[in-house]
Amino acid sequence: MGLTDIQYKESETGVIPVDWEVKKLCEISVIATGNTPPTNDPSNYGDEFLFVSPADLGKGKWITQTEKKLSRKGFSISRKFPKNSILFTCIGSTIGKSGMAHQELTSNQQINAVLPSSKYSYDFIFYALDYISPRIKSIAGEQAVPIVNKTLFGETLLAVPHIKSEQTAIATALSDADALIENLEELIVKKRNIRQGAMQELLSGKMRLSGFEGNWKSKLLGDMADIKTGKKNNDDKIEHGIYPFFVRSQTVERINSYSFDGEAILIPGEGNIGSIYHYINGKFDYHQRVYKISNFDKNICVKYVYYFMLQNFNAHAMKNTVKATVDSLRLPNFQRFEVYLPPHLEEQKAIARILTDFETEIEILQEKLLKYRMTKHAMMQTLLTGKIRLL
User: Fold this and answer.
1) At residue 228, does pLDDT exceed 70?
2) Above 90 in pLDDT, residue 317?
3) pLDDT digit string (tens) for 158-182?
4) Rg (Cα) of the chain, in Å, rounded?
5) Count of alpha carbons within 13 Å of 115, Cβ hemisphere only?
6) Residue 39 pLDDT grade (very low, low, confident, very high; cuts 50, 70, 90)
7) Which CATH superfamily is domain 217-341 in?
8) Class of the 3-161 domain?
9) pLDDT band for position 48 (50/70/90)?
10) Using CA atoms, how far apart are residues 85 and 113, in angstroms rounded to an integer?
C-alpha cells in the first residue's frame, strides 16, 4: 500500500486509518490489580518472588532493577502476574509510569497489570498506553490522592491496527529506538564512572602525569582567591537576557546586566548546598546567596580548583553547614576549604584539560541522547496514530 492509498477517518481518539479500530482496554485485555500482602502471619512464608512498586517503573520498557523480594504462601499463587505483563501505575503522584515484566512477579495495589488477548501485541499495547499516559493521568483529577480506578482504566480508548503484524512492526520499530536509547544511557554511565575514577586519581596526586615532579601542597581557598556574594535577586532575571545569571539552582538564568567579567567558580550558599557548581570565563551576574570565587593567584589554574571542589567540597559543605530554615553556608566555610594542589601551574592545567575532555565527551553524548529521545517521541506520534504506516 502506497502513502497515497491510505485513507483516514475521524474517531474518538482522533484521525486514524480507516482499517484501524478503537477499542476499550477492557475489551482487548484482562486487567488485574496488585495488592500488598499481609505481613503479620509468620506461617505464611514460602518461595521468594519479585515484588514491584511504582518506584521500579518508568526506567525503561523492561523492569530489571527491582531488588525487593517477598516470600508469602498463598499470596504468591493468587497474585502473580505472568512474564510480559504490562504494568501501569494508577494511584498517587506516579500515575502513568509503566513497564513490562521480564519474569513472573507481583505488585502492590498502586499498579494494574494488563494482559492483552492473543489478537493483540503485548509490546504494541505497552507503547500505546505509554503514549497516552498523560490522558490517563488527567482522568485522576485534582485530589489529595489522585487515582484512576480499575473501571476508568479499563475504559481507556486505544487506536489499534486491525492486523496484528502491523502492531508488531510498530512495536519493533519503537523497541529498536528504545535499545538505542538504553545503550547510550549505559555508555554515559560508563563514561561518568571513568571520569569519576580519573578525578579521584588525578586530583589526589595518586596518579602523576608524565613529566611532572615535586610535592603537592594544601592551600586554603580564602588565601588564593577573592570570595563574595552577589547583589541580585531572582526577580532580576530576564527570559532572553544578554548575560548568564547564576542563581541558587543548576539552571543558569539570563539577565541584561553583568557585575563581573572574568574567570570564576560559582556555588550557591543556600538550598542544595554542595551539589551545584558552575565555572565560567566571561561576563555574568549572580544572586545575593551565590558565592563567586574569582581573582585567583597567578600560579593557580581556576579550572583545576573547580574540578577539585566538584570532587571534594560536598563533604566539607555537609560538615560545616549552618542549620537554619534551609541548609546554608557562610563565607568562612569557603575560606577554610583546603585545596590540594600540584606544585606547578602547568600540571594543574594538564589535569584540568583531561577532565574537561571527559566532561565535553559526556555533554556530547547527553545531547545525542536528547535527540534520540525526541526522535522516539516523534516516532510514537506518527506510528501510534497511523500517520506513517509500516505495512
Assistant:
1) yes
2) no
3) 999 999 999 999 999 999 999 999 9
4) 27
5) 10
6) low
7) DNA methylase specificity domains (3.90.220.20)
8) alpha beta
9) low
10) 6
- Predicted TM-score (pTM) of the model is 0.83
CA atoms within 13 A on the CB side of 131: 24
Separation CA 260–CA 18 (nearest Å): 63
Domain 163-205+344-391 in CATH 1.10.3720.10? The answer is no
Amino acid occupying residue 332 = P
Measured CA to CA in angstroms, residue 144 lies from 75, 147, 339 at distances of: 30, 9, 49
C-alpha cell, 196? 569519576
**CB within 8 Å of 85: residues ≥ 6 apart:** 100, 101, 105, 113, 114, 115
Q: How far apart are the first and last CA of the chain?
A: 7
Q: Which amino acid is at 112?
A: N
**Per-residue model confidence as pLDDT tens digits over 11-21:** 999 999 999 99
Predicted confidence band of residue 272 (pLDDT cuts 50, 70, 90): confident
Question: Which residue from 261, 260, 289, 290 is spatially nearest to 278, judged by alpha carbons?
Answer: 290
User: Is the model's pLDDT at 376 over the cut of 90?
Assistant: yes
Output the pLDDT for position 41.
52
Query: Where along the chain do its domains lie?
Result: 3-161, 163-205+344-391, 217-341
Q: Does this chain's domain 3-161 share its CATH topology with 217-341?
A: yes
Q: How far is CA 254 from CA 49, 234, 272, 279, 309, in A?
A: 52, 10, 20, 16, 25
Chain segment 336-358, per-residue pLDDT in tens: 999 999 999 999 999 999 999 99
Cβ atoms within 10 A of the Cβ of 125, count? 24
Q: Is the pLDDT of residue 333 over 70?
A: yes
